[in-house]
């Protein structure tokens, strides 16, 4: 039987059960009569012929059951009966029902959470080059009982100058800002900005999809430039192909910082750092310039920075 005919026959058996049952009864009666006539022609009386045919068949009801169980619709019917039986049992025992539902909820939730972790850490690697060579560097203050603290800018520069472990060392921090696109059609709202060293993208081993990354010259010259995420480009600029060269005004009233930045790059879709909420990256020296501070004077011992290193081969 073809698949289409099997599906049609199964649906008919599920929808028109009484009609299909009558047709099956008619077929079995017809078979019994023809088989009995054949035995009678062989010389058996009718009563004996009927008994022999029924014995050979294995019984009428077992035969019906074998015919019914031969199609996929029988499994659907069995499942339906099991579900109805389970629902009736749960209704009779509401306490057990509540416990079972809670157990299932907790079990499914725990498994989902565990799969999310495994998926993020193992199955879906971070979007950086040779990610197993990247390390975050923290500061521990055993005397004060502080662990995994941020690091001061001066400390990071000392590490970089005396380093024999890392191929390169970058640093970053994040903050909320209120960017204003100098384009009437662009989006509005607050965003998350990362203040970074110019070598951050080189350490991560990722290049922009459009434009260029930050450079040491940008850092040295306090250049008013910015690299934005793919999602920010889509949300604020509707994926405009002429995004390179457009400007954003950053207004951070809490620090008295305001300045206009030129978009020089757009990161690839799926890239994020240090988290998926970060929308833009700008040289830390540029931001300090907006605050009328210098890299040397801007609280050099404040532990606001996180260091990122790429291990030497």
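-> sequence recovered:
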């Amino acid at each position: 039987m073809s698949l289409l005919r099997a599906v049609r026959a199964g649906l008919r058996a599920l929808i028109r059960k009484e009609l299909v049952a009558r047709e099956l009864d008619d077929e079995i009666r017809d078979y019994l009569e023809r088989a009995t006539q054949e035995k009678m022609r062989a010389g058996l009386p009718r009563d004996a012929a009927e008994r022999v045919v029924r014995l050979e068949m294995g019984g009428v009801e077992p035969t019906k059951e074998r015919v019914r169980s031969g199609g996929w619709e029988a499994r659907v019917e069995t499942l339906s009966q099991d579900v109805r039986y389970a629902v009736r049992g749960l209704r009779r025992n509401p306490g057990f029902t509540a416990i079972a539902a809670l157990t299932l909820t907790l079990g499914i939730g725990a498994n989902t959470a565990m799969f999310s972790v495994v998926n993020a850490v193992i199955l879906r690697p971070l979007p950086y080059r040779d990610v197993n060579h990247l390390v975050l560097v923290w500061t521990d203050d055993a005397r004060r009982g502080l662990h995994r603290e941020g690091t001061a800018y001066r400390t990071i520069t000392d590490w970089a100058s005396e380093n024999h472990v890392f191929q390169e060392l970058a640093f970053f921090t994040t903050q909320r800002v209120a960017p204003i696109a100098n384009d009437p059609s662009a989006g509005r709202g607050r965003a998350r900005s990362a203040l970074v060293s110019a070598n951050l993208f080189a350490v991560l081993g990722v290049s922009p999809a459009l434009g260029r990354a930050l450079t040491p010259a940008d850092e040295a010259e306090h250049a008013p430039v910015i690299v934005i995420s793919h999602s920010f480009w889509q949300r604020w600029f509707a994926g405009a192909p002429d995004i390179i060269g457009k400007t954003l005004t950053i207004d951070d009233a809490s620090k008295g910082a305001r300045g206009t930045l030129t978009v020089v790059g757009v990161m690839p879709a799926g890239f994020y750092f240090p988290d998926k909420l970060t929308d833009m990256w700008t040289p830390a020296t540029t931001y300090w310039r907006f605050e009328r501070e210098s890299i040397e004077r801007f609280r050099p011992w404040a532990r606001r920075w996180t260091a990122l290193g790429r291990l030497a081969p």
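The first strand starts at residue 134 and ends at 137.
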